[in-house]
Write a structure and sequence with these properties.
The chain is an alpha/beta fold. The protein is 37% helix and 16% strand. A three-stranded parallel beta sheet has the order 1-2-3. Strands 4-5-8 form a three-stranded antiparallel beta sheet. Strands 6-7 form a two-stranded antiparallel sheet. The longest helix is centred in the N-terminal third of the chain and has 17 residues. The radius of gyration is 20 Å and the shape is globular. Keywords: Aminoacyl-tRNA synthetase, ATP-binding, Ligase, Metal-binding, Nucleotide-binding, Protein biosynthesis, Zinc.
Length: 282
């Protein structure tokens, strides 16, 4: 069964970049003879708001993009992500991390090695904690996230790691993956029992996603996702990473940068047909 998904986060209004990704996903689903599911990635307890979810649904309906099956809201499935973390922890493949972001940056030093997102690689502070100290801090309710023990993970799943890559003609090729460059990646945050990386891996399996279409800025994340899928015994979808829509300054469109939203364009009288034509679907 061919199944794709569009998975926006409700921490701002959708913009042209989101519209492009949704339209590419719908186009692939149509050409592959499959269906397209909608997922709302609302694990952020502060920035995800109900009115933004409603706005996303309204924008997608306005664009006339159809979806199959029930909408999956990540905030309603935290127990599934917690179970995955506990599974990895029980196998010694993940450990609790009590470090704040500031502590990680400080411990990493002035010229740290960095992961593909540009963040300092975790220096392993909590990985080396004695078991007694770790248990004591957990029992005392110390705030903590969970990190993948990359060394142990690669010992269990040494690879070589590869993933199926789908080009614009729907032809699959094999692409090498290098999970090690993510280091001891955070798989559960201090404020929520998951992370983007863990939740999308679990969700893609639960929703039986066979093909993932997403932006080129997430290409490197696929390396980590392939490893998590191997560790959790999950099937790996085929991936297509499309080009990003850039603004006049050559920058990626982003809610945080105040990029013009689909709602703004709609208020200006722009039609869905014009949006599709502007993005190359007319």
């Amino acid at each position: 069964m061919i199944r794709l998904r569009f998975a926006p986060s409700p921490n701002g209004r959708l913009h042209l970049g989101h519209a492009y990704s949704a339209l590419v996903s719908a186009d692939f689903a149509d050409r592959l003879g499959g269906e397209l599911a909608l997922r709302i990635e609302d694990i952020d307890p502060v920035r995800s708001r109900p009115e933004l979810i409603s706005a996303i649904e309204a924008d997608l309906a306005w664009l006339e993009i159809g979806f199959s099956g029930p909408v999956r809201h990540q905030s309603r499935h935290l127990s599934a992500y917690r179970d995955a973390v506990e599974t990895l922890g029980a196998r010694g493949l993940a450990y609790p991390c009590f470090c704040s972001r500031a502590a990680v940056i400080s411990a990493a030093g002035p010229e740290p090695a960095r992961d593909p997102d540009g963040s300092p690689l975790y220096p392993g502070t909590c990985r080396s904690l004695a078991s007694a100290e770790r248990q004591s801090r957990l029992a005392a309710g110390g705030a903590h996230g969970w990190r993948l023990d990359m060394g142990r993970a690669l010992g269990v799943a040494p690879g070589p790691h590869r993933f199926r890559c789908l080009d614009t003609a729907c032809i699959e090729t094999s692409h090498p993956a290098d999970p090690a460059r993510w280091g001891d990646a955070l798989i559960a945050r201090r404020d929520v029992p998951t992370s983007y990386h863990l939740s999308v891996v679990v969700d893609d399996a639960v929703q039986a996603i066979s093909h993932v279409v997403r932006g080129a800025d997430l290409l490197a994340a696929t390396d980590l996702h392939i490893l998590l899928q191997a560790l959790l015994g999950l099937d790996s979808p085929a991936y297509h990473h499309h080009p990003l829509i850039l603004d006049a300054d050559g920058m990626k469109l982003a809610k945080s940068r105040g990029s013009e939203s689909l709602g703004d364009l709609r208020e200006q009288g722009i039609t869905p047909t014009e949006i599709r034509r502007r993005l190359g679907f007319g």
